Amino acid sequence: MVGVAKQVSRAIRTPLQKGALHLYGGGVRVASAFLPRLRHNPGTRWLFVACLPNGGSTALAKMLGSSRSAVRLTPSGEGQWLVPAMSATGRRWDPDLPLDYAQIRRVWLSRVPAGRDCVVVEKSPPNLCRFRTLTAAFSEMPTLALVMSRDPVAVCASWAKRYAPSTVIRTWHPELAGQGLERDDIAFHEALGRICGRRFEMLRDAADIPGAIVTTYEDVARDPEALRDRLADALPQLSDIDPRVSLGVKDYPEQSFRDMNAADIARLSSDQANAIRRGLAPHDAALRHFGYTSTSTPA
After folding, report:
1. CATH tag, 13-289
2. Minimal CA–CA distance to 55: which of 187, 222, 199, 170?
3. Which of 54, 167, 211, 286 could be a cystine partner for 158, CB 3.0 to 4.6 Å?
4. What whole-number distance in Å separates Cα of residue 79 and Cα of residue 146?
5. Is residue 61 within 8 Å of residue 72, measured between CB atoms?
6. φ and ψ at 117, to 5 degrees?
7. Nearest-CA neighbor of 272 among 188, 214, 215, 213?
8. What b/e readout covers 23-52, taking b as 16+ CB neighbours within 10 angstroms?
9. In order along the chain (299 residues), what is the average pLDDT of each group of 10 residues?
10. Any idea where the domains of the chain sit in the sequence?
């Protein structure tokens, strides 16, 4: 009964949230006619983070949030949840999804504290599929792209742990329905490798944006001060980032930014890891762009 109650609660809550956000967006649209800061705010700088789901973006955003100048649009740092169309189940990873970027800009600017010069840290992972278009929509204000990759096998291992096939199909890729994927199946892990490879292609495109700061999860874990210094050169407002701040992320113990690759990969069987690599293999050029290969961590 508890499980049924949770499902019913979620089924009721989600439409109510979407309805409230649509009303909020309508109010922002009207208010923008009278409040220029909802159309353009020169005191606001934007740091757009391009990163795969489970690629370390939550820990990164919390580290960046240690700066007094940093602002997050939502507690998770993901502005997608303020725009129902952008976060639509089953479509959020669709690069051809039609979106009203002027309205997205209005809604997001409405969440920026009035009269404060700040850096907005936005890190919605699905926006990787529309990263150039999104950043261009904010180009009238100072923007910076931060692109962070992570070992693709570790990423897939984390997905396999946290997302059942039904969740991957429902929220990410409905076209996988009907393939009989099961959580521990080799076929499911190979499908995760294919998904990750396609997202590395998107990550490579984001990395080619002029002026983008490109790094890896592994490098940040080894030397977070180096990333702080690179960011401070581009955005001096972030010079007070605490690179060793203690972070609470998912079900990990609170700690500073730490490389969890070995722990995540260790949960895979040899067959599962090799299936992931087979899925990644057609995208090896994109992986190599960031210093990985589909065979870089052989089972």
Report:
1. 3.40.50
2. 199
3. 54
4. 16
5. yes
6. -75, 125
7. 188
8. eebeebbeebeeeebbeebeebbbbbbbbb
9. 37 64 74 67 92 94 94 92 92 94 92 86 97 95 97 97 92 89 90 97 97 97 96 96 78 77 95 97 97 72
10. 13-289
Sign of the CA dihedral with 262 first, then 263, 268, and 269 last: positive
Q: How far apart are CA 159 and CA 257, in angstroms?
A: 19
Contact at 8 Å (CB) between 124 and 78? yes
Place of tokens 């010079």: 239
* 148: helix, strand or coil: strand
**Per residue in 247-270, pLDDT tens?**
765 666 677 788 999 999 999 999
Q: What is the token pair recorded at 69?
A: 């100048």
For every residue of 212-235, DSSP letters joined together read: -EEEEHHHHHH-HHHHHHHHHHH-
Contact in structure between 41 and 112 (CB atoms under 8 Å): yes
Q: Provide the residue type at 172 as one letter.
A: W
- Beta sheet of 70-71, edge-to-edge order: 70-71, 118-122, 44-51, 143-149, 213-216
